[in-house]
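As described in the Methods, two query proteins were run sequentially through the folding procedure within a single session, without resetting any intermediate state between them. The first query and its resulting structure tokens are shown here.
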Amino acid sequence: MMALVGGTIITGTGEDPIIDGVLLIEGERIRGLGTARSLSVPRDARKVDAQGCTVMPGLIDCHVHIDHRPTYDPMVHLQENVVFAAIRGWTYAREMLRAGITSFRDAGSAGLAAIGLAQAIDSGIVPGPRVVACGQLIAMTGAGKYGSYLRPELDLSALEVWVSGVEEVRRAVRRQLGLGARAVKMMASGLLGGELGGQDPQLSIEELRAGVEEAHLQNRHVFVHSHGTQGCRNAVLAGVDSVDHGTFLDGEVASLMARNGTYLVPTLSYWARMEAHLDDESVPLSMRTQYRQTGRTQYAAHRESVRCALEAGVRIAMGTDAGELEHDKGAFELEALVHAGLTPMQAIVAGTSYGAALLRLRDVGRLEQGKIADLLLLRGDPLSDIRLLQDKSRIRLVLKGGVVCCDRDREERECSTT
């Protein structure tokens, strides 16, 4: 048994932290938690002094492209074969785990790269976070994500499935689930800046609803890429589980999401990174210029959409769009959410229990007796400064299923003796 003693425990539920707490772990499960006064530590337990530290659930990133190499060139990952991308994706997943991200949802990778990685991790072949992979994107014929800016005659079947009509949607969803996908991603709008722009809806309500019905029959959830207001509205009316991006949500759609229990995964990190690197010459000048001309306005609209969602009572889950930025920088999204109006505690709930509920990971995301011990031990208090979670040197321990995946105290000791 392991006992984390003397730290502040943030359970991930949004409830007040437990001060001077004790958390007991036996096997893969949490066997007890409470204050040092209320909970005794067994004599044979391995004690970890957590004074001055915070114990909290592992982070859950609900929007990741695990095979994408973080770059300002969106075409780079299209030049690599799927096997290479999958192997490199595992190196990203390993670093995510060391950064305290214990689960993630892949939001679109080439071929079966993410599904294969999930199977390898689940089988114990390689270490990594829990992976909920969606397989190929399901998109309107002639559009989609990649079809928005690549030549239409190119074979994009490794990246997305083009559909026309309800029956083709049903066939495509069944195919992805049959290949091992644990979630389904559909395109409800185009890309910002694409030929069919982010404001333009794509799949119809009937097509989206057919995808939702097929996925829910197999107890899988559906999420959509959507920037535009109408695309978001169509997706919510169709019964999707989450709207990802939601750049131009308005109060009406946010209220509809709240009534229907639809999650928002904002992915603010892309814009926030651009804002933070406007003077960085490593960012192409054309992108910095475009951001100043149009991106800054879109970022303002995106933050406003988060505020609308928050005010309406929409559950917000953390998603970074990793692949557009470094995979192990997931905690940057929490800072962006705070800048958009969430409290640090609300941001932590978005990055833990809400993410777990959305991804149907019922035994993680909360520190409660009987739950699986996916957690991290952080030096300092993220409720006072949410940016602390971005400093990997502050993450002393990362556990997944009760197994220590990262022990920086030990690594530092070993380094000092060599």
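Immediately afterward, the second query was submitted; its sequence and tokens are:
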Amino acid sequence: MDLNEMMKQARDMQAKLQSLQGELAKREVQGTAGGGMVIVTLNGRGEPVRVHVDPQVTGDVEMLEDLLLAALADAHRKVQEMAQHELGGLGGLLGRLPGLPGA
């Protein structure tokens, strides 16, 4: 493979990565805790979008704090899984470039 072909593949891979990152940013995931008493919504970049708290838990501040943390952790895990799943396809592109892991 010549240098020009390698550079073309690298540009193609970069464009695909940027496109996937843009698509992921538009998606949303929800993390829940307490059987849905707290729901946290994050976008594909892991940024908070919404929080829903069932009025039943507002009287117990410690429980609310625990549920918020659990819901955030759940949503964050889902964002990571979504990104890994979507960006995992780039491994095939990397494998075609000589000198890189998997080549």
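Residues 97-103 have pLDDT under 50 and may be disordered. We note this only descriptively and draw no conclusion about the first query from it.
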